[in-house]
Amino acid sequence: xxxxxxxxxxxxxxxxxxxxxxxxxxxxxxxxxxxxxxxxxxxxxxxxxxxxxxxxxxxxxxxxxxxxxxxxxxxxxxxxxxxxxxxxxxxxxxxxxxxxxxxxxxxxxxxxxxxxxxxxxxxxxxxxxxxxxxxxxxxxxxxxxxxxxxxxxxxxxxxxxxxxxxxxxxxxxxxxxxxxxxxxxxxxxxxxxxxxxxxxxxxxxxxxxxxxxxxxxxxxxxxxxxxxxxxxxxxxxxxxxxxxxxxxxxxxxxxxxxxxxxxxxxxxxxxxxxxxxxxxxxxxxxxxxxxxxxxxxxxxxxxxxxxxxxxxxxxxxxxxxxxxxxxxxxxxxxxxxxxxxxxxxxxxxxxxxxxxxxxxxxxxxxxxxxxxxxxxxxxxxxxxxxxxxxxxxxxxxxxxxxxxxxxxxxxxxxxxxxxxxxxxxxxxxxxxxxxxxxxxxxxxxxxxxxxxxxxxxxxxxxxxxxxxxxxxxxxxxxxxxxxxxxxxxxxxxxxxxxxxxxxxxxx
Length: 507
Prior knowledge:
By secondary structure, the protein is of the alpha/beta class. Helix content is 29%, strand content 17%. The strands form five sheets. Strands 1, 2, 3, 4, 5, 6, 17 and 18 form an eight-stranded mixed β-sheet that branches. A five-stranded parallel β-sheet has the order 7-16-8-9-12, with no helix packed on it. The protein has a three-stranded antiparallel β-sheet with strand order 13-14-15, with no helix packed on it. β1, α1 and β2 form a beta-alpha-beta unit.
């Protein structure tokens, strides 16, 4: 039988959020923790997404931890293998290997109100923890639509985040479903080798050129020799994006100026009027995620590429049928259809104080206190929780803010002493989310006329943060105990074998 292990903190996931939490715990002097990872290596989304052309659309020097700068980024926008290598480097540099529990998929996490701890069942044994930090991330579980007839397709089918590297696309007829951030990188990467590529597009994205270039040896030498130059570069990238926030959150009309640049980019790349019309969005720039690529439009203009301005409706044998009736014979179907963002599967595996899963608690939409804690789930915290996403900057900035909150949360538990838990008050969670949703009404994500993955089934944006990263950092600098209930073990009944001094009172 697998050994049971009790720890002070259990972290779920080993992407940027999970590794960042592990580093912060060690820097706070907490070494009694484990990182539970379902895969056999660290890296999160940068391990899972290894499709051709995979790269980040945030500048490298901003898409890295401030406490672990990398002077040797090879490009201004680095690729997947370099980002994954960076996360392996962080793991080794900060001595995280002994804390890793790889191939340990979390199957169930249940709050024990009597013991004031979390009972955790994994695929390789059980654990218990005083505190659980969920860092599974919103881009971890691929979403494939329920397409009639897909089960009967005789060819190859896979999602962009589960790329089949053993399948050779050379000369094949390929259907690419979706036009999100992954698809616009995949299309130009595979277009030269496939026989025919058919892109199924429900909604065209706004695309700007990605100003990517090789970082010179002189630049890398300068950053290694004078580290403050790397810090300054990061600060400049951060400041520019902070100045852009008001256009997304308060003055969407200003985005019309940038929209004209995007239209000019489209006109320059696509000369065919009919194709250009298919690729022109009908919603405000910024309403959906803005995509960066200098190769996407030129690839679509190649003679072996067809763009179907419609989503996939059904599959009939080896024929894929679009909603507009277009039929295409293909050998492979690649889904670039995103992830379970507002309905994260981990929520079905977390059972709180009232016996409800997190998914049941969030059935009407995700809600948390400061993007971190949820009512009914004591000593449970999420990294990249509800309304912590960004539309124009680096998620690492938001993660580091949440790590500050985690650190102060652990300090508060230490100061309170003994067996103790903090439970977010429903009133505090409600007040925080009313404020966030009120501010959201002015943003381009709500008023821009699009239906994006930022929105949940009820049309609420429970994904993005409607402010600057600096503002979020101020909001999460420390824990306000007034927003929490302090829970201690219930007093046991006094018997001949027990005296009052053996028990603790409820605070």
